[in-house]
Amino acid sequence: MTPQVDRTPGRKIRVAILFGGQSEEHDVSLRSAQTVINALDPDRYEFVPVGITRSGQWIQQGDPMARLTAASPLFALDQGSAPPPEETAVEPAGDHFISSDITASVDVVFPVLHGPKGEDGTVQGLLELAGVPYVGSGVLGSALAMDKAMAKEILARHGVRQAPWMLVERSRWQRDPAGIASEIADTLGFPCFTKPANMGSSVGVKKVHDPSELTDAMSEAARLDRRIVVEQGINARELEISVLGNDDLQTSCVGEIVPAHEFYDYEAKYIDERSQCLVPADIPASVAAEASSTAITAFRALDLAGLARVDFLLDRETHDLYLNEVNTLPGFTSISMYPMLWEASGLSNAALVDRLIELAIERHGERTWAPAPGEPIGSRTSPD
To answer: How far apart are CA 300 and CA 47, in angstroms?
Structure first.
């Protein structure tokens, strides 16, 4: 049976917004959450802010956003002040998990979290146990898409074109760096990219121009994850497309990133204002159509729901389109491509957030539906 959200006239839908988190993308999450909160129509929604500190404490009283942004280097930069020294920053105290009082009293949870312990199925599993509708993909889809290596394996089975790559475990790299370096040179060549298998926002991603840069790049990726993805470098344009829906999927127009740096790293995304987002991208209609169909293929192959941003590389010489990454909880900041692409496609931030909340409630109803007593399984193809 579909969960019954109280639609009594005048009653607002209660939305819990989760933000912060324990990943390297903590600061980006704070910005994204502010955008989502600002997009909620105050006549329709009541939002319940829930902050998660870098050490995993859940703040559910007072003003969690103010308490977390006060210790955020990214927000200090916005205000023109020096970032708080990490060793002296005092992290606010809180609980270890979301309160059952909150999950029992809200209609839906919107996890505005990026990276591990937020986008990788962990929080999704917690919300499944709490039995509350939530925005975005479930445990399986979140975990698959977050793990770049697993996602690549699944997408390859569905015929999705990707750049040549290999997986290196941290332990193998530490045991035999010379042998791994030789394998990378022979298999992929240079330039190549090194990435932590489980991370987003280009955190820990390095472009390796020649063998002399490989050790530092692998060490940085290994610091963030026990599994490292190494990809062949392609002289390419960076394209992105947004997907929206559960079973009936829509795609936005295609956008292009022109990074301020050599590639779209963390600083180019969130700090250096010289990066450009070209929406829509100046590409042939055939490339846009291929990006749309491939994004939908990837979305379904990874069993995603609600939303995703799919990133592509368009080879400047061959014009081949390669899928780069799939992000299940993409950035929602004022300069993030996911909402920007929908805005350009005719869907405002407010309408986009409305739709995501509707999809969350719809999907929860489909997952929890069961036949009535005595009703044969399969007698209905969809919930009421």
So the answer is: 31
CATH 3.40.50.20 residue spans of the chain: 13-135
Q: Whose structure tokens read 């999450």?
A: 29
User: What is the Cα–Cα distance from 92 to 358, expressed in whole angstroms?
Assistant: 33
User: Which one-letter amino acid corresponds to residue 383?
Assistant: P
Q: How many CA atoms lie within 13 A of 60 on its CB side?
A: 13
pLDDT in tens, 13-44: 999 999 999 988 899 999 999 999 999 999 99
Q: Distance between alpha carbon 33 and the CA centroid of its chain, in Å?
A: 13
> In angstroms, how far is the first alpha carbon of the chain from the final one?
6
* Fold (CATH) for 13-135: Rossmann fold (3.40.50)
Q: By C-alpha distance, which of 120, 135, 131 is closest to 16? A: 135
Band of residue 381 on the pLDDT scale cut at 50, 70, 90 = very low
Give whole-number Cα distances, 119 to 144, 201, 308, 350, in Å: 10, 12, 11, 22
Provide the CB-side half-sphere exposure for 150 (13 A, CA). 13
Q: Peptide bond preceding 191: is omega within 30 degrees of 0, i.e. cis? A: yes
Cα dihedral 285→286→289→291 (10° resolution): -110
Class of domain 148-159+235-328: alpha beta
Q: What CATH architecture applies to the domain 165-232?
A: 2-Layer Sandwich (3.30)
Global pTM exceeds 0.85: yes
In the three-class reduction of DSSP (H, G, I as helix; E, B as strand; rest coil), residue 18 is classed as strand
Write the DSSP assignment of 193-207 as a string of letters.
Answer: EEEESB--TTTT-EE
Residues 45-71 pLDDT 10s: 999 999 999 999 999 989 999 999 988
The answer to whether 81 and 70 have CB atoms below 8 angstroms apart is: no
Integer Cα distance of 42 and 372 in angstroms = 37
Burial 89-114 (b: 16+ CB within 10 A, else e): eeeeebeeebeeebbeebbbbbbbbb
